[in-house]
C-alpha cells in the first residue's frame, strides 16, 4: 500500500476571502476528478464547481490547481483548492474529501513527505517552519536563507569532505601493504584538523543565530515605584501594565513583544524588589528575580528622587543597563554603583529615543545576523559539537582503525543534522571513484 492521500487547510484559520486546501498523495487526481468533474490541465488555475461525491450538492465555486508528481511541493501528486474562505465552505469541502477517501494531514506531514522524497534536507525543512513563525524582517531573512539550503550546503559540504577523508583512511587500512602515496595517513589528520577548525569557528558565534530565531528576553528590574511599568508602557506604546503611585503594584510578570531593528524582543516588567510581607508580593518578587536570571539583558531601573536601594544595586552587573528614571523630577546622578546611568523620564519621554536606540544596538549585538549561514538551533549545535569532538579524537588516535571509527562517528553526527545518515551509501559512491588499482 502506498502512502495515504492527505489534505489540510494551508491558509490560516478563521474567516477570509480565500482559504486554500492542499492535497497530496496518489489519490489526488481521483479525488479532484470526483469533486470537480474532471482533472484540470497541470499547473493552470481552473474555476470549477466542487460537488459532494455522495449527495452531488454544490459546495463552492473554487479555483483548482493540479500539480502532478514530481513537480510539486511534496514531490507527490498534489493539488490546491482555493475556496471562498468561510468556515462552512471549508468544513463542507473537507467532508467531501474524506468521503472521497482522503484523510486530514498530521502536523508537518506535507513537509515530512517533501523531506522523504528528497526535495529538501532537515535544515531546509526547519527553515520553512522558521519562515512561517518569523515575526521580524531579520528572522525572515535568516529563515529564508536556511529554507533555500544555506545550511544544507554548509553541513552537506562538511559531510562530503568527511566522507572523502574516511575513504582515504579506509584505503590506507585496506591497502596498507601496497604502494600508497607517502604521507596519506598524515594528510588525513591534517585535513581533519582544518575541518575541525571550521566547525569550531561556526560554533563560536555566541549563539547569535539561535537567539535571533528564538528572540531575546529583556527584563526590567528595580525597586517599587521606580517606574518600571511606566517604562514598559512607554516602550510598548500602549498601557500593557498597571501604573499607580502605590508601591508594589506589579505582581505577575507582564510581557510585551518589541521589534528592535529586526530582532524580536520579549520585554518583561516585574514586581518591585523589596522585603515584602505579603505572600503574593513575595511570589511576585521571586518571579522577578527568576526572570532577570533568565534574561539576555537586564534593565536596572532607579528613580532619581529615591536613594539607590541595596536590593536593586545587587543587579548592577556587567552587561546590565542602568537607568535613572524620572529625570523630570531630579537630574540623573553621574554614577550609580560605579556605572553611568542612562537618564530617562517614562512620564515625559525624555531620553526614551536614545534608550530605544541603545536597546536595538544591544539586541543586534546579541542576535543580529552574523554569518551568511548562521547556526540556528541547539539540535545543530549539539551534533556539530559532537562532530568536532570526534575529529579531535581522530587527531589524537594512534591507529588507522581508530581514526576511521572517529571519522564514521563524526559523519553520523553531521548526517543527523541534515537527515542524511546513510554513511554506507555515500561511502559506496566515493569508493566507486577511488582508483587504487583494485
Ligand atoms: N514624575 C515622574 N513620575 C513617574 C515617572 N515614571 C513613573 N512615574 C510615576 O511613578 C509611580 C510608579 O510608577 P510605576 O510605573 O507603577 O512604577 P513600578 O516601578 O512599576 O512600581 P511597582 O510595580 O509598584 O514596583 C507612578 O505614580 C508613576 O506615574 C517619571 O518618569 N516621572
Ligand atoms: K507602583
Ligand atoms: Mg509596576
From TrEMBL:
It is found in: Cytoplasm. (6S)-5-formyl-5,6,7,8-tetrahydrofolate binds at residues 22, 80, 119, 438. SUPFAM superfamilies: P-loop containing nucleoside triphosphate hydrolases (SSF52540). Its cofactor is K(+). Residues 215-364 form the TrmE-type G domain. CDD domains: trmE, TrmE_N. GO terms for molecular function: GTP binding; GTPase activity; metal ion binding. It holds the Pfam family MnmE_helical. GTP binds at residues 225-230, 244-250, 269-272, 345-347. This is tRNA modification GTPase MnmE. It comes from Roseicella aquatilis. The gene is mnmE.
Amino acid at each position: 500500500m502506498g502512502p495515504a492521500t492527505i489534505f489540510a487547510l494551508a491558509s490560516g484559520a478563521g474567516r477570509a476571502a480565500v482559504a486554500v486546501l492542499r492535497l497530496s498523495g496518489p489519490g489526488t487526481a481521483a479525488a479532484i476528478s470526483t469533486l470537480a468533474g474532471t482533472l484540470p490541465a497541470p499547473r493552470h488555475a481552473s474555476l470549477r464547481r466542487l460537488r459532494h461525491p455522495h449527495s452531488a450538492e454544490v459546495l463552492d465555486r473554487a479555483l483548482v490547481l493540479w500539480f502532478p508528481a514530481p513537480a510539486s511541493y511534496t514531490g507527490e501528486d498534489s493539488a490546491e483548492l482555493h475556496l471562498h474562505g468561510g468556515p462552512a465552505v471549508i468544513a463542507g469541502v473537507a467532508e467531501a474529501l474524506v468521503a472521497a477517501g482522503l484523510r486530514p494531514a498530521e502536523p508537518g506531514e506535507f513537509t515530512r513527505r517533501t523531506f522523504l522524497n528528497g526535495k529538501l534536507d532537515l535544515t531546509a525543512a526547519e527553515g520553512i517552519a522558521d519562515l512561517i513563525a518569523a515575526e521580524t524582517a531579520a528572522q525572515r531573512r535568516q529563515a529564508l536563507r536556511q529554507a533555500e539550503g544555506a545550511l544544507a550546503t554548509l553541513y552537506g559540504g562538511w559531510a562530503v569532505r568527511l566522507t572523502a577523508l574516511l575513504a582515504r583512511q579506509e584505503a590506507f587500512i585496506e591497502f596498507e601493504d601496497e604502494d600508497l602515496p607517502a604521507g596519506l595517513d598524515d594528510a588525513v589528520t591534517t585535513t581533519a584538523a582544518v575541518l575541525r577548525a571550521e566547525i569550531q569557528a561556526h560554533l563560536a558565534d555566541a549563539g547569535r543565530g539561535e537567539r535571533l530565531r528564538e528572540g531575546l528576553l529583556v527584563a526590567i528590574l528595580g525597586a517599587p515605584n521606580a517606574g518600571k511599568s511606566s517604562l514598559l508602557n512607554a516602550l510598548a506604546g500602549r498601557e500593557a501594565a498597571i501604573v499607580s503611585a502605590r508601591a508594589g503594584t506589579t505582581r505577575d510578570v507582564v510581557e510585551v513583544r518589541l521589534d528592535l531593528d529586526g530582532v524580536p524582543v520579549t520585554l518583561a516588567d516585574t514586581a518591585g524588589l523589596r522585603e515584602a510581607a505579603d505572600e503574593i508580593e513575595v511570589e511576585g518578587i521571586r518571579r522577578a528575580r527568576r526572570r532577570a536570571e533568565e534574561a539576555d539583558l537586564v534593565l536596572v531601573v532607579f528613580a532619581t528622587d529615591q536613594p539607590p536601594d541595596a536590593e536593586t544595586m545587587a543587579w548592577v552587573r556587567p552587561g546590565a543597563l542602568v537607568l535613572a528614571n524620572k529625570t523630570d523630577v531630579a537630574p540623573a546622578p553621574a554614577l550609580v554603583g560605579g556605572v553611568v546611568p542612562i537618564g530617562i523620564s517614562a512620564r515625559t519621554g525624555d531620553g526614551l529615543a536614545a534608550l530605544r536606540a541603545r536597546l536595538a544596538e544591544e539586541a543586534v549585538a546579541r542576535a543580529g545576523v552574523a554569518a551568511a549561514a548562521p547556526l540556528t538551533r541547539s539540535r545543530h549545535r549539539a551534533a556539530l559539537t559532537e562532530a568536532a569532538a570526534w575529529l579531535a579524537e581522530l587527531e589524537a588516535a594512534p591507529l588507522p582503525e581508530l581514526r576511521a571509527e572517529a571519522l564514521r562517528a563524526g559523519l553520523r553526527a553531521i548526517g543527523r543534522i541534515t537527515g542524511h545518515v546513510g554513511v554506507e551509501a555515500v561511502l559506496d559512491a566515493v569508493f566507486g571513484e577511488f582508483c587504487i588499482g583494485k
